[in-house]
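Field reference: sequence -> structure
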Amino acid sequence: MFIRLACIMLLALSAAAGDFLAAWPDGKSEKLYYEVTTYVPVEMKASTTVEISKSGGASPVFSVNQTFEIPMQQITINSQEKYNGNSLRFASSENLLKFPEQAKAQLGTDTVRLSAVARGDSVDISSNVPRYAPPGKIPMSDNLTTSVGTILAARDFDFKLGAVKKYNEVDLLTFNGMPFNAVEDIDSVAAEQDVTVAAGTFSCYQLVSSDPTAISYTYFSKDERHLPVLFEIFRAADTMKVVRMELQKFE
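Structure field:
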């Protein structure tokens, strides 16, 4: 139960190349603060902070550090990921999930560590709870990203109405005893509209993603920053809203 509650609220944004990558100078850092509300099975508040930075030099690296706090469930998640600064090709992911004491009855520990490292044509995955997060390999591809890394990759999009992007995503923070694998996701730019959140009012592009169980809408600012302003998930069966993530401020 703890695993499912933690993972349902994690970012699920998506990523053709645009002007964002070229416009991000070496040495720049950015910090985004969000409030997350889940509505099922009960309404619950959480917060997440994403810090993105890019190193300089001949081989620049993007670093993405995301922390996630769920006070009602006493869950804390920290993910640290690295991507090639020129291509956004995945390099590594280190994840630390801290659960309340009672999680030991299910997991055998209250702290889960999970790592993924790109090596050649594959990504090696390991964890300290192999029963629930089995070690293994998945194929490496140029468009591979994670549920955390999509907050960076999605912004390097050639945003135009009707544009479609296919990419492979591996969710390293949902573990149920099954081997990890990458699945193909498809995003499309559906509309342009103004969106008002706590951080202000933004002119945005609306991206739509869907699968048999859910429809998600992500709103990115239309300027060269392409800030992820708002993210909402609706249940496909009855269009009930299940998650809302709203930008509170950015630095």
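Note: Confidence is low (pLDDT under 50) at residues 1-17.
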